[in-house]
Amino acid sequence: MKRDYYEVLGVPRTASDEELKKAYRRCAMKYHPDRNPGDAAAEGAFKECKEAYEVLSDAGKRRAYDANGHAAFEHGMGGGGGRPTPDMNDIFGDIIGTIFGGGKARGARRGADIDYVMELDLEEAVGGVEKRIEIPSLAECDTCNGSGSEDGKVETCATCQGHGQVRFQRGIFAMQQACPECGGRGQVVRNPCRKCHGQGRVEDEQVLSVKMPAGVDSGDRIRLNGEGEAGPPGTPPGDLYVEVRVREHDIFGRDGDDLHCEVPIRISQAALGDTVNVPTLGGEAEIRMPAESQTGKTFRLRGNGVRSVRSRAPRDLYCRVVVERPVNLSAEQRELLE
C-alpha cells in the first residue's frame, strides 16, 4: 500500500509550496541514486519522494489527492490544474533578453518570427549546451524558388506600379494602404505554382542546431536572424527566438547565479561535529561541521555556483544545515536527548 504523500515528504497537509520544495530537496539530498550507488532501498525512497512531490507541487493534482487520496489517480479522477504556460508576448513584449541585446525587426514585408521554448537541465544551463531542434514553419517553395510562379515569371503590378502601396483621398486626408491587387507585394503571378498555389511558401519542418552559452537562466533568449518563416515572394524571412526554460533540479535551487541546497545531518553529527560530504555541480565537497550545529546554519562554498554569461567569475553555493529529528525514540533515548 502506498504511503501518504505528505508523510513521505514529512510535511503537514497545510504545507506551502515553498515548504514542499524544501522537503523534496532534503529527501533528494538524502536518497538520490548518485549519492547512494547500488542502494536499491535508497533508490526506491527517492522515487517515492519524487512521485509525492510531482503530485503535491501541482495545484490541480493536489486538490484531487486531498479529496480522494491515491484513488484520484488510480481511477482516472486526477489531473487538471497544472501550471499555465505564460504568454511570451506579455512577459517579453518585443524586447530580447538583456544579455543578448537587440529587438525584433518590424518590417511589414517579411516572414513571421518564430518563438521556441528550449527546456534545459540545470547542468546544461550552467555548462552550456548545443541541441538540435525541430520547428514547424513556412519554408520557401523549392519548385518555384519562392517566386510563386510555375514558370518563374512575375509581372510588376499595374495598379501600384510595383510599390505595393496605393494612395487614396479621404476628405482632406491622403491615405495609404496595401495594394488590393497584389496584396502589397508589388508583383503579380499569372501562372501560379501548382505546389504552393502561388504563395511561394510551403509548410515544412526546419531542423536546426542551437548553441546555448554557459550560464543562461530561465527567461533568457537568443535570436537567430533569418531562421523564422519564409516571407512572401521577394521578401526576407523572419527571425527565430529561442527562449530558455530551466527545469527544476532535484537538489539545487538557483537564486540568480548563486546555488542553494540543504544538507541533512544526524543529531549526533550536529552535537559532536563531523566532516560531511555535500554535493556540488562538479562533484562532492567536504565541509567541517562544528559541534553544536543547529538547523539553519549555512556554509558558503565559494566558486561552486554559476558562472553567468554576464560575468567571468562563478558565484557561490550555499549549504543550509537541517538537523534530522529522530523518531520512535525510547524513553531512555528521549531522556538522554533532553
UniProtKB/TrEMBL annotation:
GO cellular component: cytoplasm
Names of required cofactors: Zn(2+)
Residue ranges constituting the J domain according to the UniProt record: 4-69
CDD domains to which the protein is assigned, alphabetical: DnaJ, DnaJ_C, DnaJ_zf
Xref: Pfam families: DnaJ (PF00226), DnaJ_C (PF01556), DnaJ_CXXCXGXG (PF00684)
SMART domains linked: DnaJ
Single Gene Ontology MF annotation: heat shock protein binding
Keywords in alphabetical order: Chaperone, Cytoplasm, DNA replication, Metal-binding, Repeat, Stress response, Zinc, Zinc-finger
Superkingdom: Bacteria
Family according to the record: Belongs to the DnaJ family.
Subunit structure: Homodimer.
HAMAP family named in the record: DnaJ (MF_01152)
Protein name as catalogued: Chaperone protein DnaJ
Organism annotation: Pseudoxanthomonas arseniciresistens
Lineage: Bacteria, Pseudomonadati, Pseudomonadota, Gammaproteobacteria, Lysobacterales
Gene assigned in the entry: dnaJ
